[in-house]
Amino acid sequence: MNLRQIEIFHAVMQAGSLNQAAKRLNVSQPTLSQALKHAEDQLGYLLFNRVKGRLVPTREAELLFVHAEGVMRRLTRFTQISDNLHRQAEMSLTIGAVPALHFHGLPQVVDDLAASFPNLGIALRSLQFEEAGEALTRKKIDAALLFCPGNVAGPFKIEPLAKAGFEVLSRVELPLEERSLEKVCTRPDYISIAASGPLGELLDRRFARDGISIRPRITTETYYSSAVLAQAGTGVAIVDSFTAHAFAARGLHAYPLDGVADYDVGLVYPEDTGKSEIIRFLCESLRRHLVER
Asked: Which one of 3.40.47.10, 3.40.190.10, 3.40.50.2000, 3.40.50.880 gives the CATH number of domain 166-261?
């Protein structure tokens, strides 16, 4: 049976009559009947018994139908992919991400997107947490990869992807007793983050709860900047675990910071996105690669 004959057979099995199957396939009933008879002649056995004007599937038809279902599912998927390739010729995806998340996960995800959607234009934008809502609303980006995504206000969908924590970065090894939050942030060479969004708020709440007063001599605007200073030996920094992982690979000492709550990493995108299939693929790829630390 060729693909058209399988499609006809499948439609008749589903519809239960030639008349209904012909309507589904948008052909005349005589044409469909002739095509079905031709398929049976080629096979050398009947697919349906004609009983009082009704088509009753034979045992052979029942067995073939299971496989025809699989063929039709694959055909539907093939059609979707071919349509997507046509649409992607004029499509692009702009991903905004906080600087720390450009280090890990995102590069591998871009590779995945490029391989699976060869006609898709991909752009990466670095943004601060506070800029995400406006960038999404004004369509400057299609999706935002953020820490604490639930803190973004607006008509957005939020896809949780991973959990992360804080770590201490130092060029020199720190004794165990020097790795606590209070010990690190009260050091004279502590490198602090100014205006650091929801992660900074998590640390500030912990400082307030424990009555820790800090007066950092050095402040930066990003965890990357703090990590670079720590790498230069300027001081000790508290950073997110993704930045810590990237700089530990460069030879810095990274120590998990206990006693401070973990936080979510997630993707935020508009509810009315017209790129749902690509966004779904993006979420799956991010979820897979973000945990590879």
From this structure: 3.40.190.10
